[in-house]
Amino acid sequence: MPSRLARPQAVFGLTCLAIPLFAQTPARPAGGTDAVELSPFEVSASAVRGYVASETMTGSRVKTPIVDLPYSVNVMTSEFLEDFGIFDLLDNVTHISGFTGLDIGGNFNLRGFSSSNQLRDGFFRLGRYGSSNIDRLEIIKGSSAAIYGRTSPGGMINMISKAPKDTASQKLSYNFGDFGTQRLTFEGTGPFFPGALGKTRYVFTGSHYQREFGQEFARNRNHEYYLALDHVFPDGSKLFFSAEYFLQIRHSPPSAVPLVTDQKGTASVNDDVAIGYAVNLGKINASGPNSELNRGNTGLTVGYDKKLSSVFSTRLAANTFQARRWDYNYVNQWVAFTINPAVATAPIRTARAAVPNRGRIFEDGGGFQGDLLAHYWTHGRQIEHRTLVTIDINDYYQWNPTLSYAPATNPDVVTWSTARFVNLDANWNPVGPIAYFPKRSKDSPGEVRTRDGRKHTTTRGGNFRQQSAFFGGDLLVFAGFRYDSVTHQHRDKLTAATAFTPFIPGYVVGQVVRREIDQFKPNVGVNYKLRPAFRIFANYSESYFLDQGDTALDIANTAYRPEIANGYDYGFKGTLLNDRLSYTVSGYYINRENVRVTDLEETPPGSGTFIDVTRNAGNQLVRGYEIDFNWQATDALSVLGSYGNVHSIYTDFGSSFPAAVGRPVQFIAPYNGSLSVKFSPVRGAVKGFSANVGVTFVGATPTDAPNAGDTYVTTPGTGVRVVSRSTYQWALKAPAYQLWSAGLRYQLPGKSATSHTFAINVNNVFNRHYFKAGSSAATRLRGEDRAVFFTYTLNHRGTKF
To answer: 25 pLDDT exceeds 50?
Structure first.
């Protein structure tokens, strides 16, 4: 493996109040108990009730009650994941309003926009996570997430790691069930070294997880290890350290469902219509046994926070990571095919890629975070203020070589050029045994490099945020800004120099392409308490986004610009029924600009000849509303629900495709949500028993770009573009679906420090057949059938400090 993967990163940091915690479901505190006064960067244990958290840090980079924020923050906790048997975070996590398409590569859809990067404990991350060491998923919605720098206009997801606790405990769980699922997880936490210099606590988690899929050959294996230590000094300051290792081996990953086009029995293409997807083929692996898609990550984080005085507190943090992705023969997905050809004897046929590839992506980097918080009063202690100043530094490096198995003349490739085609019957099932590429990458007589790029992006930024409370805290006013300076230094060793020449005269293949970008993004919001149990809020914020896929050729373009967005959040929050029912109703309106599109340009001017030119000049508009609530109906019965409505369209898709304006954005569900009920008696004969049932629902979701299937003609002289014919592929959707899940859990009674718990979970209770739009064509997968899982947990609880 190339030594570039191990390239060290110098990482330091200032963080006085970062490392977020998102809320709207129960979030575990970073410190476990309140044995010492918590810093402004640590959420208290009492902030958790049922599945709901009342405090967050992700929302504002400082501990803040969620009800006080002028925008929406949601949380999904580890308890929720455990109760519903969600072992893998890409398993239909659609419970949060406006949130779909989460995958292990870091992709997700939120509030009408797709994103390819996330946060882990407040630091930049490209996916690669397991569920065993995550305490909760926190989601800050809208452009307000720009307090962390670049972000999707829809918001940002932050994975919060488990933290050490004061009370010693050990837990060993074994899960097994359908699809060959087996998962063994250990978690231990508690005091590590109490002494005169303070107390040290630890948490360690280790997990091995494997499962198969509905497709032959396809299976996953996860290895997850995590260790965290914190030391609380006598003055209340804290030093924190964590180390993480994650490796996912995906053997023959599941294949996406292919497009089907009806030729209507004619030789003309003018009447062809895209009719849907061959969901049947979603049960069959296209790549075969010699295929893989693996991801790994190692990371280290160090943090220190301290209350400097009665006014000032600070937090410093540093992170470094090394990540990798490697695949072989993964691109051999099912290819789109046609039915009802003009000649009836022609078979229905699909295919796989002509030449298998071996792709590799090596990444490393790290970041610094420094936050300084001032908490003070003015006007005779009538007005309370919190002023936050933040420094962020992030460094990211990627090397992404891709190689073909061999030249097209290689005997293996020549044989495969025929074997890769598969004939289908009228129901789109293979008519005979399927041939697979027989060789592994190590058998190649000579690979051919097809991609070789280096990306180096450094971001230096800062954030200022002022929060002031007037009228005894009834009126909260937030205002601030974010400034970032981004340096790109990219290289491309394969693209011809002529592709760069229009932008960089005298360009030589492989030279460094450099670009500097500065961004200033303001935000302002208000939260007003009309009544003790009812608040209204409004917020305006701006953000920017850098696509991780941007290449040297992209940034060399003189028209290159980062995507930017501005958005409004508004709504109300409150409680009813003696504070047992809490709710948030919010609306939003977001404009996204500088989307990469294709424009038509007259070249040379006045010639009447038009060519396609790629520019960052498109626009996208999203508006919608969300409802989130939690009802503690009784001490034993709780109800959690969400609903999100999303209207996401392109308002400018480039002058080359004018008909795309007003069409919906691909992979964005128009609505989604969930309803969950948990019954957990706290006394009586059935104490120790709990039952939960839930349903998630996702609306019919567009699966293709808004210009897919359209053929245009250009009017000579004027450049006016008109659709001459269309297969209406852009109108295709993954049908709406509902999935029910249920769980039962029972802890054997006893007074011993050791307890035994047995559980059963059923996912997709009614065995609903469906397929997911995902967040890309590669994740357009057939949904999973009903699955039953059993769990045994051995838990030991020890002493406290």
So the answer is: no
